[in-house]
Design brief:
heterodimer, A: about 240 residues, alpha/beta, Rossmann fold, six-stranded mixed sheet, about 35% helix, about 30% strand, B: about 475 residues, alpha+beta, 2 domains, six-stranded mixed barrel, 18 helices, 9 strands, about 55% helix
Amino acid sequence: MSSSANIVLSARGIVKRFRSGDSELEILHGVDLDLRSGERLALMGPSGAGKSTLLHILGLLERPTFGAVDVDGRDAWALSTQERAALRNRHIGFVFQFYHLLPELDAVENVMLPAMIAQSRGDFREDRRAHIAKAMDLLANFGLSHRLKHRPTQLSGGERQRVALARALFLDPPLIIADEPTGNLDRDTGELVLELLFRAQEQRNLSLLLVTHDERLAERCGRVLRLEAGRILGPLPGRG
Amino acid sequence: MYRFFLSWRFLRSRRTNLIGVFGIFLAVGALILILSIMTGFLEETRRSARGSLSDLIITLPPYSESKRPRDPAPVLEILRADERVEGASAHLGWMCILTRQDERSLRILVDSQSSEIAGVKLTGVDPATEDSAAEFRHSLDKVGRSEEGEIVAPRLRVSKLEDPFAAPPEYNANVGRPRASVIVGEKVMTYHGLRRGSFITLMTAVPDPKSDTGWSAKKREFVVAGCFRSGENEIDLERVYIDRGQLARFLAGVSEDDPLPEDSILYSEVLVKLKDYAADAEDVRATMGARLYKAGLLDETCTIRTWEEFRGALLGAIENERVLMGIMLSLILVVAGFTIFAILSMMVTEKRRDIGILTALGATPRGVLALFLLIGFWDALIGALSGAVVGTWMAIKIDPFERWLSETFGVQIFNREVYLFDSIPSVVTPVAVAAIVLGAFVCTLLFAAVPAWRAASLDPVEALRNE
């Protein structure tokens, strides 16, 4: 396949089972999924369909019972814990519904966190000025130049999600995984965050995997997949 | 990089960590302070025991059938020829009963419960050579001095340090017959109500082949030339110094000015002082023993002992107490460790979500483990270092500090009379301080390891579940 070169994320035959007591519960029954470079993909489905579990498996946070996840052409679950962590750090940016910022750090520090994790102490110290400048630049782009030294508790929901967005973009990963990024925001604020997310995605030619309940949001994505009862129903006709 | 940065941030943002830090501070400080004082006690006791005991003590019982020479000169000559030997001096020891013309003597003799005793160990010394082997003059000079060093009780001291057995100025040698002088222990002086120039009577028994019991009694009057203070209760209570020649005359039953008879008993032990006791004691004991034995100067009835063997029980007891104190105070460290364990466990529970975030952003379980271990490390670093500084400072300044406390609150905390120490002894050994600090680190990290391990094995997905 000529297009396989620009496939950023690929999942094959993902099965996930959970043990609960004596019985085994199968959440995902063999999911296949490809995400191309620069593609905007929405994953929809009712609660309990297994969206979160699939997202965690694709985000390399949870090991599938069967199946393989390739990120950047590498079979992620065949790698060592360290290598997989580095892959997550460099190739995947997460945006969560509940922002998930560290309360002890201010906005700039939260944005720089992926670099702190990636680099040794000496390297980080060397690049510190550059990192701070980059973080401030990103935050300023998102209209937060007056909020640089604020802690998460001093920020509004929309501001927090913009900081989280800047953090996800900080190491320029080719893939952004967003789990209901507007789910906890009012309509106007959500709209603003989405604008920023889509703009960044277009400018940087990122692949975006967006999990949402919102039909209107899904409509703005290039491709929509529906997950129901642990199976992909396929792209909705007439779209994409 | 995030491990250092975040561990420090987490530590600062949780004030409860200070409890753990304070616990370590307290444990390290108390351990250093108490162990320094115990070491000081041990060293001070060693020193005071050493003042009267010397490094090696060769005991040569003067049995009549022994073929050894009567005079100590050949033994001393061989010992002094060895380059590791600093000095050697002969002693003649004899047990006596001390009385004076006073009702006090009767009271002491009849009271079986009294700590005041009439029995004394009369010790014949050579004033010229005694100081080369023991701190003889030092114990004379300690008497009657104030803390500033000035002499406050001249009537207790010998009149001339250079000739300690000279007749005291209070004694008129022309009255009655001449008497030899003795120097009594400080406690003997007070218990018997003696002063310089007082007369005492010493009574004892000596072997006598002509007597049908094998022994005959001796009695003689002496004049007190002053007293000494060794700092060791037992010695200050029992010992009476006398010129060795005079003791030999007393035992032989000849007058103070007469020459000694051929068969008189001249010495019963030889004190040896070494240049480096710690390094040479055992070796000198073995080689000298062999050499003296070969020369026919020692036989099977003789023993060579180090002074520590004499004071073994006392030193062992103090050493034992020091170890026990160390163990008990280490329990504070364990309690501090538990506190840190509890605080960190709480923190891990509280920071589940943050741990999940870090994992999502690319942190490894190993990194999370290091992050929480580092919090314990900071606790130990701050607690142990401040504890070491304050503990060492307190140990150095304990004496003025105790005096200040006593004066301020009017309660005597340390009774210097009980211990016969002029100040609270305290010796800070850098190795001990380093060991305590190291122990604090090991203890803290061990206790921090459990919650850190728990943090590292958290399931990030579980931690990130939407609230």
